[in-house]
Specification:
Chain B: InterPro entries: ABC/ECF_trnsptr_transmembrane, Cobalt_transport_CbiQ. The complex is a heterodimer. Chain A is mainly alpha-helical. Helix content of chain A is 73%, strand content 0%. The relative contact order of chain A is 0.15. Chain B has 10 helices and 2 strands, in the order ααααββαααααα. Chain B has helices spanning 17-32, 37-54, 59-76, 78-83, 100-126, 129-138, 144-155, 157-173, 182-213, 232-254; strands at residues 89-93, 96-99. In chain B, helix 2 runs antiparallel to helix 10 (232-254), helix 3 (59-76) runs antiparallel to helix 5 and helix 8 (157-173) packs antiparallel against helix 9 (182-213). The longest helix of chain B has 32 residues, at 182-213. Chain B is flat, with a radius of gyration of 24 Å. Chain B starts with 16 loop residues before the first helix and ends in a 12-residue tail after the last helix. Classes of the chains: A mainly alpha, B mainly alpha. At the A-B interface, helix 1, helix 4, helix 5, helix 7 and helix 8 of A face helix 1, helix 3, helix 4, helix 5 and helix 7 of B.
């Protein structure tokens, strides 16, 4: 911490903040699990709307800390936490978390960790969604659903992902910026230097 | 919460947590490629028996957990049952179309979710966080900073719970819990989420600084307060799981309960 310029490498503060956030979302996942399960028997895939919340940890952590790796760590740790809290689905969550985290991270990496807009957050949520659908295609036999039902499912899931894991983390991080906590954990950006001029 | 846990002296508590973690996680791969309904029925039955024998929860809690998990697992299959593809129609009304194939597929999905939940429960109820993270560092070579980070984070759960109570009470005392409407709901959510998150971030940051001030080392070789090793129980565990899995496959081959050996076939 003594070096004057913060690098993009993760230090202990970043790791702890990421893991604590992951734990908070792990708890949220655990609590949302039963709600999600109860929506399922309606058969109209209202549950798919809620599915988006499970992608939130990665974009949120990335938007907050703005360093490489945090998105992946956050999503995986949140999944692990959900498993340790005995969430419904058990071990499955871990694999979903890994894949979602990787794909979410890939979006931020593609913009070389320089762009953290609403669009990128949504895109990262969308990438996580693609990951979840790939696993579901094998795991839940998605292609075996009737055509209209599958379409409804995918549309709801995309909507949910964009709203709950694109827009929501963006709004939350904007709110956190107002509280001032973000200043101390983000790497120094160009704007920060400009202020000094 | 005192009577939730049975004694932590049971066999599954003594297994090396990393081994337990790896074996239990790899079960996902095994059952991902099972498309035989009979195998899944037998597997879920056998894992149910195993769960009752080894789980760390006491009888009453255990029963309700299994019961709810079963219901919820069947819920998760409802879409496949009601709207899946298939030819042999059992029931049709409006959009709902239940066929033999989709019913079999749905039941398989439900049982698979059920089995994974049970396996997850076996892991979650017999693994204590601290030995688990120590074992991750020692056996799976997870970097010390992540494992310690997780342990520190776990310590913060009770503080977070207390904080949540405080926010709730503060809102009630100021009459904010009585406000109605979408906007009030949105603001209430915001107040909970932002306060909790901001506080958690600050706390994590303080903890990290404190750890570094106490010379917590991220890179050097280190010693451990708890040494997690191996024992003969680990061997028992591997044998038990292997037996359960093989028995599932053997039973489904010799005592098929349904004619659906591949639910992906039409």
């Amino acid at each position: 911490m003594s070096e004057g310029k913060k690098s993009l490498k993760l230090n202990l503060t970043d790791i702890l903040v990421t893991i604590v956030i992951a734990l908070v979302f792990g708890l949220v996942f655990r609590l949302m699990g039963p709600v999600y399960d109860l929506l399922q028997p309606l058969g109209l895939h209202l549950d798919a709307l809620l599915y988006g919340i499970w992608f939130i940890a990665a974009p949120f952590a990335a938007l907050l800390i703005r360093k490489p790796g945090v998105a992946f760590i956050a999503e995986t740790a949140a999944a692990l936490a959900e498993m340790l809290f005995a969430g419904s689905g058990g071990v499955v969550n871990l694999y979903y978390g890994l894949v979602q985290g990787l794909l979410s991270e890939a979006i931020f990496a593609a913009w070389r960790y320089k762009k953290f807009s609403l669009g990128i957050a949504s895109l990262s949520a969308f990438a996580a969604l693609v990951g979840s659908v790939i696993i579901d295609a094998y795991y839940s036999y998605l292609p075996m659903l009737a055509g209209w039902n599958l379409t409804l499912y995918l549309v709801f899931r995309v909507l949910g992902a964009i709203l709950l894991s694109g827009l929501l983390p963006f709004v939350l991080v904007k709110g956190l910026e107002k509280t001032g906590v973000t200043q101390s954990i983000r790497p120094v950006s160009k704007e920060d230097y400009d202020v000094l001029k | 919460m005192d009577n939730v846990w049975t004694s932590t002296n049971k066999l599954f508590f003594k297994i090396n947590p990393s081994l337990k973690f790896v074996i239990i996680s790899s079960l996902f791969i095994v059952y991902l490629f099972v498309h035989n309904l009979n195998t899944m029925i037998w597997a879920s039955l056998l894992f149910l028996i195993l769960y009752y024998l080894v789980s760390g929860l006491t009888g009453k809690w255990s029963f309700w957990f299994v019961f709810l998990t079963l219901i919820v697992s069947l819920f998760s299959a409802s879409a496949m049952i009601m709207f899946g593809k298939g030819d042999h129609i059992i029931y049709q009304k409006y959009l709902i179309l239940i066929t033999q194939e989709s019913l079999a597929r749905g039941i398989l999905l439900g049982l698979r979710t059920f089995t994974f939940s049970l396996v997850g429960m076996i892991f979650a109820t017999t693994t204590l966080p601290v030995p688990f993270f120590y074992s991750l560092m020692q056996q799976l070579k997870v970097p010390v900073r992540y494992a310690y980070g997780c342990m520190a984070a776990f310590r913060m759960i009770p503080i977070m719970a207390e904080e949540l109570m405080h926010i709730r009470q503060a809102m009630i005392v100021r009459g904010m819990a009585r406000q109605k409407g979408a906007k009030a709901l949105y603001e209430r959510m915001n107040r909970y989420m932002l306060t909790m998150l901001a506080q958690s971030i600050r706390r994590a940051q303080r903890t990290a600084i404190a750890m570094e001030a106490k010379r917590f080392s991220m890179t050097e070789e280190r010693t451990y307060y708890y040494e997690i090793g191996w024992s003969r129980y680990d061997l028992f565990f591997v044998v038990i799981i292997l037996l359960t899995v093989t028995l599932g496959f053997v039973c489904s081959a010799y005592f098929p309960l349904t004619p659906f050996t591949n639910v992906l076939d039409h």
